[in-house]
Amino acid sequence: MQVPYPAVHIMHGDAVMAAGIHALLAAHGEFHLTSHDRQPNGQAHARVIIADYDSGIILARQLSPDRLGVAPRVLIVTQLDKEWQVRTAMDSGVHGYLLQGCSAEELVRAVQQLSQGMRYLAEAVTRCVADSLSRESLTGRETDVLLLLARGCCNKSIARELGIGVGTVKTHVKGLMSKLDATARTHAVVVAAQRGLIGSGARPVPLPGRQPRVGAAMQ
Questions:
Q1: HTH luxR-type domain: from which residue to which, for each copy (predicted)?
Q2: What is the pLDDT of residues 14-57, one digit of tens each?
Q3: Does one domain contain both 178 and 118?
């Protein structure tokens, strides 16, 4: 009995990347391919969905299993390679993570493994995740405080912004400095930036009582 080709839906936000991914996978001849710009309904039948970073995370959080209990596997193809960015994607339920510039062979291998129910991480991000697991992670509130420290906020400003006491802020600052092995507040910001914990890949500071909108997250 002939095994049907696995359905792969390409919805990368970068049109050039999407076209390149489609061409590379089509040349391999092993997949049933659909593109979101031409066949948006292909997402409903896909075994693997290839997306950019932001769209991939949102998809991974929202996708639910079909009537057979199977959910599509999400593969992100991106240039973002920082520890925080990779961990955020994996914690959100993303199944595969590739870096732009990967070889055609690696792209095919990643799609094959995801279509078989496995995960795939590029070698570079595998090392990144492995290194991060050896370090104690910051809590959500410590990350909020860190982001405000990076803006140059003092303890009183941070307390007012987050709706907590100044003493609590000091406790969080002490905790994050210990985890980052930093000797000063500015040193903590530098170390966090080097590890990708703040910067373009960091999550925004949530204000009390507010939730980020999905539409805003995709912008």
A1: 131-196
A2: 999 999 999 999 999 899 999 998 999 999 889 999 999 999 99
A3: no
Q: How many domains does the chain have?
A: 2
pLDDT tens figures, 88-140: 888 889 999 999 989 999 999 999 999 999 999 998 788 767 666 657 778 88
Is the domain of 24 the same as that of 63? Answer: yes
- Residues forming a β-bridge with 7: 32
- Is-above-0.85 flag for pTM? no
Statement to judge: residues 120 and 151 lie in one domain: no
Phi-psi region of 107 (alpha: psi -120 to 50; beta: other; left: phi over 0): alpha
Boundaries of domain holding 124: 7-132
